[in-house]
Amino acid sequence: MAEKLVIIPTYNEKENIENIIRYVFDLEGNFHILVVEDGSPDGTAAIVKRLMTEFPARLHIQERKGKLGLGTAYIHGFRWALERNYQYIIEMDADFSHSPDDLALLVRACENGADVAIGSRYVDNVIRVVNWPMGRVMMSYFASKYVKVVTGLQIADSTAGFVCYRRRVLETIDLSKIKFIGYAFQIEMKFTATKLGFKVVEVPIIFTDRKEGTSKMNAGIFKEAIFGVIKLRFKKVTPAAGSGQSH
Ligand SMILES: Nc1nc2c(ncn2[C@@H]2O[C@H](COP(=O)(O)OP(=O)(O)O)[C@@H](O)[C@H]2O)c(=O)[nH]1
Ligand SMILES: [Mg+2]
Fold first, then answer.
1. Any idea which ligand is nearest the CA of 140?
2. What tens digit of pLDDT does each residue of 102-143 get?
3. Nearest atom within ligand 1 for CA of residue 72
4. Cβ neighbours around 78 below 10 Å, total
5. In this predicted model, what pLDDT tens digit does every residue of 196-220 receive, in sequence order?
6. Three-state SS for 108?
7. Could you give the C-alpha distances from 135 to 41, 53, 141, 212, 236, in angstroms and in order?
8. Cβ atoms 103, 24 nearer than 8 A
9. Nearest Cα residue to 189 out of 164, 207, 215
10. Is residue 88 part of a domain?
11. Domain of 182?
12. Which residues, 6 or more positions from 20, have their beta carbon under 8 angstroms from its beta carbon?
C-alpha cells in the first residue's frame, strides 16, 4: 500500500495538535504525520513528542528555530518526505479547518488520475466556508478571482491549503525556486504544478473556521499574495535538475 504523509505546520497550536493527530490516526488509510514545528512558545512541540512515544512509527516532528513561515515549513516537509518512501504527500492545517475526514477524498482523486488534488472551497462558484466573518470570506473568494485574472490559472480556490500531491510532482518542482511564504506560497505551488503540465483537480470540501487557538494570518501575508501573483505571471517555470520530468 502506498505510503501517505500528512504534513501539518504548527505555530502555537497546543489546543489542537493532540486532537488532530489522534483523529488522523483513528482514520482508515494508515496515514503518517509530520509536524513542522516553528519553536512555538506555547509548548506544541512537547505535546507532539509525548505522542511520538505512543506512535513511534507514524508520528514525526521537524523543529525549526522560530516562526519562519508556512511556505518554508512545507518546503522543509516536502524534502523530508522525498527522502523517504511517501507516494502521497498532503498539506493540512492543524486547526480542523480542513476536516481530516476529507483526506481520503483527496487521496482517491490522486489514485484516480490527478497529480494534485485540491480541497476546494469555491469550485463551481459555490462558497463552502463556515463561520468565517463575511469580510474574510469575500476577501478570500475575490482573491481567487483576482489570481485567475492576473495569472490565467484556471483554479477556483488558488489559496487553498488542503492539498494532496503525488510524489512525482514534488520531485519535478524545483523547490529551491519556490519563494513565497503565505497564501502566495499556495498559489505559487498550484501555478508551478500546472505550468509543468501536471493534472490539477479540485475536490469540493467544506472549510470551517478554527474553534480553538488563533489565526496566524496577517496583513504582510495578504500583501505578499496580492503583489506576488503579479510577479508569478512573469515567472519562468522549469523542472528541477535531474527530475527527468517523467510524467
Ligand atoms: N510551522 C509554521 N506553521 C505555521 C506558520 N504560520 C501558520 N502556521 C500554521 O499553518 C496553519 C494555518 O494557519 P492559520 O493561522 O490557521 O491560518 P488561517 O486559517 O488562514 O487563519 C496552522 O496549522 C498554523 O499553525 C509558521 O510560520 N510556521
Ligand atoms: Mg486556520
1. 1
2. 999 999 999 999 999 999 999 998 999 999 999 999 999 999
3. 28
4. 26
5. 999 999 999 999 999 999 999 888 9
6. helix
7. 30, 43, 10, 20, 34
8. yes
9. 164
10. yes
11. 4-233
12. 8, 94, 95, 96, 100
Q: Is residue 241 a part of any domain in this protein?
A: no
Cell reading at 70: 508556512
Q: Whose CA is nearest to atom 16 of ligand 1?
A: 215
Q: Taking the model in full, what pTM does it have?
A: 0.96
Work out which ligand 1 atom sits closest to the CA atom of 182: 6
Task: Establish if 239 belongs to a structural domain.
Answer: no
* Cα 16 to Cα 69, 111, 211, distances in angstroms: 19, 29, 9
Residue type, 106: L
d(CA 75, CA 73) in angstroms, rounded, equals 6
Per the structure, the count of domains in the chain is 1
What CATH number corresponds to the domain at position 198? 3.90.550.10
| Atom nearest to 67 CA in ligand 1 | 27
Query: Distance, CA 45 to ligand 2 centroid (Å)?
Result: 18
Closest listed ligand to the CA of 8: 1
243 found inside a domain: no
Residues bordering ligand 2, an ion, CB closer than 5 Å: 93, 95, 97, 210
Of ligand 1's listed atoms, the one at least distance from the Cα of 38 is: 1
* Cβ < 6 A, ligand 1 pocket: 9-11, 13, 36, 38, 67-70, 73, 93-95, 97, 210, 215-217
**Residue whose CA lies nearest to ligand 1 atom number 26:** 69
